[in-house]
Amino acid sequence: MTAASELLSRLQGRTLIVVGDLMLDHFLVGAVDRISPEAPVPVVRFDHDRFRLGGAANVANNAATLGARVQVVGIVGDDEAGALIRSELAKLGIDPSGLISDPGRRTTRKLRVVTSRNQQVARIDYEDDREIQGAVEAAVVSRIDEMSSAADAIVVSDYLKGMVSRGVAGGAIAAARRRGVPLLVDPKVPHIDYYAGATVITPNHHEAEAVTHMRIRSSDEAMAAARRFRARAQCDSVLVTRGEHGMTLLSPGDEATLPAEAREVADVTGAGDTVIATMALALAAGGSLVDAARLANRAAGVVVGKFGPATVSIEELSGG
Predict the structure, then answer these.
(1) What is the arithmetic mean of pLDDT over 103-131?
(2) Catalytic residue flag (residue 273)
(3) 36 domain-assigned
(4) What is the CATH number of the domain that holds 132?
């Protein structure tokens, strides 16, 4: 058994806590064969709706597909989209008991109008991105603290939709330290000061450039930016994802540049969710940061060949 396959065999049964912005991706699919006489826009003839979990919910879905026991902590509104997220999580075997309903805000839903050939015509966002506070924030931090007692790793999935406040990020990091487990963050630039003490932060190259004020056009520049990012964010390690240029890992003991493994790119939506879910589980299973990054890189190469927020299986990662 190779080191990679041995690590894959240990992913199943690990407990992952996912904290972050839950979203519902709603696809309205139809055919386009004419332009509207009212305005220069296509007329979409409705055929069907399709729903997928997005944001932190997609991170959870990716981890569950890889065999993890997953618990989610997040906010939903008292609305149909929130109820659908709860039911979809439950169908996937993901524990939804960490979801907190806030009747004062709407559930984040992205409605994409697409053709039957998967060409996007328009996107409508239903969201309330005010940062949570007061009793709601306290309830979230309390839920993280309760659930972390069983965690093998914790992921913070920040999409700037209001769930990840300074208090929530700090509570998750403190819970991980008490438990002695890795905490990984998929970050957003305005919250860079929230993540101090994280085990790994996984910015894409645009986010790394924005935080460090450095251009990234080569592997050497990516590593230099990773060093500055780590100092700025005050985290242990950084994994810069660079799309078709692969990944750059900086950790206390290792520096590595990983070439991209994608054979064919259909859609990069949600690829970051797959990366952080895979890496978190690999670390939870006892893998090194380099081995976890290699596995996450392989997972990204698979998932970008699929349309929309998608997942990758153990069989796909093992080459089966």
Answers:
(1) 94
(2) yes
(3) no
(4) 3.40.1190.20
Q: Which helix (H) or strand (E) holds 315?
A: helix 314-317
CB distance 216 to 222 below 8 Å: yes
Mean pLDDT for 47-70 is 94
Q: Using alpha carbons, select from 86, 52, 82 the residue that is nearest to residue 72.
A: 86
Query: Which one is catalytic: 25, 102, 152, 273?
Result: 273
What's the one-letter identity of residue 192?
I
70 pLDDT above the threshold of 80: yes
Structure-block tokens of residue 20 = 């972050």
- Is 295 domain-assigned? yes
The residue whose two tokens read 């169908």 is 91
Cα–Cα nearest to 86, from 49, 118, 114, 60:
60
Task: Give the pLDDT of residue 231.
Answer: 97
- Residue-number span of the structural domain to which 66 is assigned: 3-24+54-108+127-309
Nearest Cα residue to 200 out of 224, 217, 176: 176
Hey, what are 311's tokens? 């997942």
- Rounded mean pLDDT, 270-278: 88
